[in-house]
Design a protein that fits this description.
Elements lengths: L6 H5 L7 H6 L15 E5 L4 H6 L10 H8 L14 H4 L1 E5 L13 H18 L3 E5 L1 H8 L7 E7 L2 E6 L11 H15 L10
Parallel strand pairs: 1-2, 1-3, 3-5
Antiparallel strand pairs: 4-5
Helix pairs in contact: 4-8, 6-7
Length: 202
């Protein structure tokens, strides 16, 4: 047993969805992990079929979100996707730009990303996180009408929240391996511990 996992966490792992369950998951959404006044709200592109079938964010084996989060310092141990609500205790949450499950984010229409930006704006106004971190450079660019986007903190704010862009942690993103993801996630973690980098504006 890994020393970073509790016995309860090990025994609570949900069963792997069947092929039929994955097919049925297409088009479904999953609930946000969100609360008022978060330090960082992580924003994925949209749920994959595996996540939609299980109801948990970044649930597909091989996705590096949870390992990167732990290694960067956001969590005291490596959480399973089924433990996602434990993030709220540390002041972090998860949402998606588009809450429609697809086999690939490339199936999303540009109009869906633009609509997702508007829905996200409403969530930020309601819950007022200090920062929002987009997990996907291309999707962020499409949603905000930007042709070039750099990894890291972005100029300006979105609905009062500091804006960060990080790589998509999907295992299919071969451009960034786990050590590189951890280094980038750690920059955001370090910023959350300062008084200026993620302080919310009114």
């Amino acid at each position: 047993m890994s020393p970073t996992r509790s016995p309860a966490a090990t025994s609570s792992a949900p069963p792997k969805p069947t092929r039929a369950a994955l097919a049925r998951a297409a088009g479904k959404g999953i609930p946000d992990v969100i609360a008022p006044g978060l330090r960082v709200l992580f924003c994925g592109i949209n749920p994959g079929l595996y996540s939609a079938a299980t109801g948990y964010h970044f649930a597909r084996p091989g996705n590096r979100f949870w390992p990167a989060l732990h290694a960067a310092g956001f969590t005291t141990r490596a959480l399973r996707p089924s433990e996602q609500r434990e993030l709220l205790k540390a002041g972090f949450g998860v949402t998606n730009l588009v809450n429609r499950a697809t086999a690939s984010a490339e199936e999303l229409a540009p109009a869906e990303l633009l609509a997702g930006r508007r829905r996200l704006a409403l969530k930020l106004r309601r819950h007022r996180p200090a920062a929002v971190a987009f997990l996907g450079v291309g999707a962020y660019g499409h949603a905000f009408g930007l042709k070039q986007v750099k990894i890291g903190p972005q100029p300006g704010r979105f609905e009062g929240a500091a804006v960060w862009v990080l790589p998509n942690p999907s295992g299919l993103n071969a451009n960034y391996q786990l050590p590189e993801l951890v280094k980038l996630f750690r920059r955001l973690w370090q910023a959350t511990r300062t008084s200026t980098a993620t302080r919310r504006t009114t």
